[in-house]
Amino acid sequence: MSGIGTGYDLSATTYSPDGKIFQTEYAQKAVDNSSTVLGLRCKDGVVLASEKLVLSKLLVEGSNRRIHNIDRHVGVAVAGLAPDGRMVANRAWDEAASYKRVYGEPIPGHVLCERLGSYVHMFNLYWSLRPYGATMLVAVYDKNGPALYAVDPSGSSMRYFGTAVGKGRQAAKNEIEKLKLADMSCREAVAEAVKILHKVNDEEGKKFELEVSWICDESGKQHQRVPADLLAEAERQAKAALEDSDMDD
Amino acid sequence: MDVSRGASHAEAAPSTGTTIVACTYKGGVVLGADGRVSIGNYITNRASNKIAPLAEYIFLCRSGSAPDTQIISDNVRHYLDQISAESGEEPTVEMAANLVRLINYNNKDHLVGAMLVVGWDRHGGGQVYGAPIGGTLSKEKWAIDGSGSTYIWGYCDSEFKDDMTREEAEHWVMEAIALAMTRDASSGGVIRLVTLDGRGAHHTYISGDKVPQFVGDLPFPAGASPAPFGAPAAQQQQQQAAEAGMVIG
């Protein structure tokens, strides 16, 4: 790994001869090496799911949050450096709060994500700052309907039907492409998301937790954790599906 | 000039002592205003336009201090322009109303502006918001403000109906303003109406000689026209007066 950008990778204000900014690429690596996070945009809402490796038995279950509420109608899942993600999530909260104070309505998803993209991009412009090592998957349900966005360390903000980031993103994206998301309800998508996370998890023996949230008609268009019983049922189905495929092997 | 007698124009600021009226109907909104601007007993403008456009389908009815409400309307038009450039969407009526309200509230020690924010957007249809002095904001089915409004609360309360047709709504607004102009010295001149139904903004100008006259026991003045939207009682009354050959010298 070392020596790739030798000489051109010391600051975010230096281009390499082939037109890359290595600091931004290295920030992207921080995201690529983190545990998998995925988002699915269905016909009635958006589901966010994050895999969390449990690093110690001493950790209280459910701690080390990776999914944050930004406003009632917006939720954000963080992949990469968790503290970096928290800073960006706080900025999103600030933007949403000030927009509502001035304009009286919940911030539209595309406005929030453009602003977030501009904010993250700023950290790629100056020698004295380092880029954020986090990608934000933003789930929003505003007056234009449900939408899923991804804001990455370079500051680009894109809208997706479904996407995954982190270690298992390739395998997860392959699975997501097989789904017919436009016909699926969020309830069904929760089960699919959990199944995919279990499938692409390759840390043998290491315990992991799932943090799954949704924002849909069923949740009253508010971003919240998926109900415990639905999550438990989805986990059960996922484990059963894995055993089936193991038996096939 | 003897200042001790002329207390009403001690500050010599023009006032839109006014009547402004707006109401929703089945399919849209109608808004209207009189045309009189006065400094004390001097009418500086007898055909002013108190209806300011804030966006393509959002209008501000102004009453109170003329310069204060003009500045507010200019600022809000600018802010709405900016946010619609950022979001790529038409602003909503609620956004415009909130901006007007914030300016009123944050500058309540200095401003005297009682306004109605009325418009049409594709999310909420036709909407009427009252934004009186001090910084309240209230969404209503109909609203009135200005010095002349005090005389027509009874008329508005008793004659307003839900789900009126466009013609009924235009007649209600016009008649309310005409009645106020009859009794309020600070309201008069002309009536301006704007109707918004999602297909466009339809402007109506009713010149002074066409404004319906409510003369009570007095004989109907010769040469005055019946109400433009065809209130049958007024037409009948005028015909009777003409037949009786009544003339005011």
Explain the layout of strands and helices.
The complex is a heterodimer of chains A (249) and B (249).
Chain A: H1 22-32, E1 37-41, E2 45-53, E3 67-71, E4 74-80, H2 82-103, H3 109-122, E5 134-142, E6 145-151, E7 157-160, E8 162-165, H4 169-178, H5 186-200, E9 208-216, E10 224-225, H6 228-248
Antiparallel strand pairs in A: 1-2, 1-8, 2-9, 3-4, 4-5, 5-6, 6-7, 9-10
Helix pairs in contact in A: 2-3, 4-5, 5-6
Chain B: E1 15-16, E2 20-25, E3 28-33, E4 37-39, E5 42-45, E6 51-55, E7 58-65, H1 66-87, H2 93-106, E8 113-121, E9 125-131, E10 138-140, E11 142-145, H3 153-159, H4 166-183, E12 191-196, E13 201-206, H5 232-244
Antiparallel strand pairs in B: 1-7, 2-3, 2-11, 3-12, 4-5, 6-7, 7-8, 8-9, 9-10, 12-13
Strand line-up in the sheet with most strands of chain A = 8-1-2-9-10
Number of strands of chain B: 13
* Largest sheet data of chain A: 5 strands, antiparallel
Element-level helix/strand string of chain A: HEEEEHHEEEEHHEEH
**Oligomer kind:** heterodimer
Low-pLDDT parts of chain A are none
Instruction: Figure out the total of helices of chain B.
Output: 5
State mean pLDDT of chain A (0 to 100 scale): 94
Radius of gyration of chain A equals 18 Å
Distance between the termini of chain B: 34 Å
- The count of β-strands of chain A is 10
Distance between the terminal alpha carbons of chain A, to the nearest Å? 35 Å
Shape of chain B: globular
Question: Largest interface, by Cβ-Cβ below 8 angstroms: which chains and how many residues each?
Answer: A-B, 10 and 16 residues
Q: Largest sheet of chain B, described in full?
A: 6 strands, antiparallel
Strand content of chain A: 15-25%
Globally, the shape of chain A reads: globular
| Helix content class of chain A | 25-40%
Unreliable runs of chain B: 1-10
What report would you give on this structure?
The complex is a heterodimer of chains A (249) and B (249). Chain A has 249 residues and is α+β, with helices and mostly antiparallel strands. Helix content of chain A is 37%, strand content 24%. Chain A has helices at 22-32, 82-103, 109-122, 169-178, 186-200, 228-248; strands at residues 37-41, 45-53, 67-71, 74-80, 134-142, 145-151, 157-160, 162-165, 208-216, 224-225. Chain A has a five-stranded antiparallel beta sheet. In chain A, strands 3-4-5-6-7 form a five-stranded antiparallel beta sheet. In chain A, helix 2 (82-103) packs across helix 3 and helix 5 (186-200) crosses helix 6. The longest helix of chain A has 22 residues, at 82-103. The radius of gyration of chain A is 18 Å and the shape is globular. Chain B has 249 residues and is of the alpha+beta class. Chain B has five helices and 13 strands. Chain B has helices spanning 66-87, 93-106, 153-159, 166-183, 232-244, and strands at residues 15-16, 20-25, 28-33, 37-39, 42-45, 51-55, 58-65, 113-121, 125-131, 138-140, 142-145, 191-196, 201-206. In chain B, strands 1, 6, 7, 8, 9 and 10 form a six-stranded antiparallel beta sheet that branches. In chain B, helix 1 (66-87) crosses helix 2 (93-106). In chain B, 45% of the residues are buried. Mean pLDDT of chain B is 88; it is low at 1-10. The interface between A and B is medium-sized, with 10 and 16 residues. Chain B: It is an enzyme of class 3 (hydrolase). Chain B: It comes from Astrephomene gubernaculifera. Chain B: Its EC number is 3.4.25.1. Chain B: It is found in: Nucleus.
